[in-house]
Design a protein that fits this description.
The protein is α+β, with helices and mostly antiparallel strands and about 290 residues long. Helices cover about 35% and strands about 25% of the residues. The longest helix has about 35 residues, at about 110-145. The N and C termini lie far apart (about 65 Å).
Length: about 290
C-alpha cells in the first residue's frame, strides 16, 4: 500500500515556488499533511538538552530516511561533522515556527565544539523568543484596533541551515532565520572553522592583513558589474549605500575555499534585490 505521507512529501518537494513564498507555501503544505498524520511536533517547553536528545532519537528510530541521512553525514577528514540535532514545528493562532537546528561534532576539541553549540542554541533561543514576542504584540495591536482574532494571519518564522564548505581544512555553514508577516526578512549567522587549528576563522585569517581593502574592492567591482543591468539598483554611498565592510562582516567560505561576504536584505540595496553576496578570491602567494 502506498504511504500517503511519503507521496505528499515527495509532491511538495518538487513544487517550484517564488523565494519569498517558499517557506509560506511549504508551511501550508506541511500543515495539511500533519492533519492527515499523527502529530510529532516537539515543543520548546522542554529543556534544550531533553528536546535535542529526544528529537534526535525519535527521528532516527521513526524515520528510515532520517536515519540514512544521519549515517551519511559527511565526516570532514575525521575531524568534524554538522548534523541536525533538533527539528520541530510549533503552530498556533499567533505564529507558525519551523526549526531545523544544527550542531557541531568535533573530534578531540570538545571546548570549541561546546562553545559553538552553546552559542548557536543561545542565539536561536533569543531570536525565536523575540519573534514570538513580536507575534503576540502584533496580534494584540490587531485586536485592539478592531480586528477579529480569528482573522489574524500568524507570523511565520523559519530557522534552517546550510553547509557551504567542507573539506579537511575548513568547515563553513550558515544559519538563516526568516520571519514573514507582510514581507520576508532574514538574518544570517555564519560559522567558519579552521579544523586544523581548531578555531573560528575571521575574514582577516582568510584574506590576510589587507582583508578590508581586498573585500571592499571586490564588493565595489561586483556592484559596478551588476549595476549594468538597469533592473539592479544599489543605494549610493553616503545615502545608505556600500562604503566599506565591517570588521566583523558576515561571510562564509564557498566550496572553492573563497570568502563570500554577505549583506542582508535592505542593507546596501532595495528590498527587492534580496540578500547580496560577493565572492572574494583568496590572495595568491605573489600578492
Amino acid at each position: 500500500m502506498n504511504d500517503p505521507w511519503k507521496e505528499a512529501r515527495s509532491a511538495y518537494e518538487q513544487i517550484p515556488v517564488p523565494d519569498e513564498l517558499e517557506f509560506a507555501v511549504a508551511s501550508a503544505v506541511r500543515a495539511g499533511n500533519r492533519r492527515r498524520s499523527r502529530r510529532r511536533a516537539v515543543h520548546r517547553g522542554l529543556t534544550a538538552a531533553v528536546a535535542s536528545c529526544a528529537c534526535f532519537v525519535l527521528l532516527v528510530n521513526a524515520s528510515p530516511t532520517f536515519a540514512q541521512a544521519v549515517s551519511n553525514v559527511p565526516v570532514l577528514g575525521s575531524l568534524a561533522r554538522v548534523f541536525t540535532v533538533e527539528e520541530y514545528t510549533v503552530e498556533d493562532r499567533e505564529h507558525l515556527i519551523d526549526v531545523r537546528l544544527p550542531a557541531l561534532d568535533m573530534e578531540g576539541d570538545t571546548d570549541l565544539e561546546q562553545r559553538i553549540n552553546t552559542e548557536i542554541q543561545t542565539r536561536i533561543d533569543q531570536v525565536l523568543q523575540e519573534a514570538e514576542d513580536r507575534a503576540r504584540e502584533t496580534k494584540a495591536a490587531f485586536v485592539a484596533t478592531g480586528g477579529d482574532p480569528d482573522e489574524f494571519m500568524p507570523i511565520i518564522i523559519s530557522v534552517d541551515y546550510e553547509i557551504k564548505c567542507q573539506n579537511d581544512q575548513y568547515l563553513s555553514f550558515i544559519i538563516t532565520k526568516t520571519e514573514i508577516l507582510a514581507s520576508a526578512y532574514s538574518e544570517y549567522y555564519a560559522y567558519n572553522i579552521d579544523l586544523q587549528a581548531g578555531k573560528k576563522l575571521t575574514l582577516k585569517d582568510v584574506l590576510g592583513p589587507d582583508y578590508m581593502e581586498l573585500a571592499n574592492e571586490a564588493v565595489r567591482e561586483g556592484i559596478a558589474q551588476r549595476s549594468q543591468d538597469p533592473d539592479n539598483i544599489y543605494f549610493e554611498p553616503g545615502e545608505g549605500g556600500f562604503e566599506s565592510i565591517d570588521e566583523d562582516q558576515t561571510f562564509y567560505l564557498n566550496q572553492a575555499g573563497n570568502a563570500v561576504v554577505v549583506f542582508e536584505k535592505y542593507e546596501i540595496a532595495p528590498g527587492y534585490m534580496g540578500m547580496q553576496e560577493f565572492e572574494i578570491p583568496l590572495p595568491t602567494a605573489a600578492d
